[in-house]
Amino acid sequence: MRPYVICHMMASLDGRIDCAMTEQIDDTNHYYEALAQLGCPSTLEGKTTLAMHYAQEGTFQPARAHEDAGLQLYKAVEAKGYAVGIDTNGTLRWDDNTTELFGRPLLMILSEHTSQEYLDYLKQKHISFITSGRNGIDFASAFETLRTVFGVERLAVVGGGHINGSLLDLGLIDEISMMYGYGIDGREGMAAAFDGRTLSSKPIRLTFKSVEEQDGIVWMRYLVEVKK
After folding, report:
1. Which positions fall inside the Bacterial bifunctional deaminase-reductase C-terminal domain (predicted)?
2. Cα-only R_g, the chain
């Protein structure tokens, strides 16, 4: 059993999601108001987004030889909602009070290849974590742990494009919540709402759920069709 997962994104009309750009086409906080309506106390963000907006500069520098941590979990605190982050190999550096930074406790998902030293570092920072998967992160298993151990029943994936694409390919997203602001990006190399899928990937079929307009911003919701 895993959480119900909603991918909630703000994009320009051409589907780009650069945060500095989207802030200019959603200056009334409709994105966050819609996120609150989705009823997801916990959110998930990829490493790129975390490094850009939340983590300290630089990368974690180990002081001893690498020792794979293997399969582990650590629950620093009981909470109604978590800021879930992805950091496959354990390299992000954090402030002492991440709960204040995110507004709720931080919970990291990492691979089993993460060093034991880095997990000890997270414990010192009182940051919860799950390690799952030897060759990259086993998201299906990690999501089950989110539900069974941390009580996460609804999870909003809020960035970025590559983590969105990966979870979509794995069949771990139940619903798409897309908000399109009144602007076009068009800059070369900017990430799309769903990115990084292979050229041989087939389109993911969706079922329309709802649409509404809010001060020029269009909010559309779709259910992801189950693969047969």
Report:
1. 92-213
2. 18
Query: What is the distance between the alpha carbons of residues 40 and 64, in angstroms, rounded to a whole number?
Result: 39
Q: Which band of pLDDT confidence, cut at 50, 70 and 90, is reported for residue 19?
A: confident
pTM comes to 0.94
CB 201 within 8 A of CB 170: no
pLDDT, tens only, 40-49: 999 999 998 8
Q: How far is CA 1 from CA 30, 75, 101, 157, 163, in A?
A: 32, 19, 30, 18, 21
What is the residue-wise DSSP string for 147-187?
A: HHTT---EEEE---HHHHHHHHHTT---EEEEEE-S-----
pLDDT in tens, 112-122: 999 999 999 99
Name residue 19's amino acid. C
Q: Are strands 175-180 and 128-131 parallel, antiparallel or unpaired?
A: unpaired
Give the C-alpha separation, 145 to 119, whole Å: 17
Distance CA 157, CA 58 (A): 25
Q: Are 211 and 219 spatial neighbours (Cβ–Cβ below 8 Å)?
A: yes
Asked if residue 85 has a cis previous peptide bond (ω within 30° of 0), the answer is no
Q: What is the pLDDT of residues 63-97, one digit of tens each?
A: 999 999 999 999 999 999 999 999 999 999 999 99
Once rounded to an integer, what is the mean pLDDT over residues 128-138? 96
Whole-number Å distance between alpha carbons of 90 and 72: 13
Question: What are the two backbone dihedrals, phi and then psi, of residue 223, each rounded to the nearest 5 degrees?
Answer: -95, 140
Every domain of the chain with CATH number 3.40.430.10 lies at 1-41+154-228
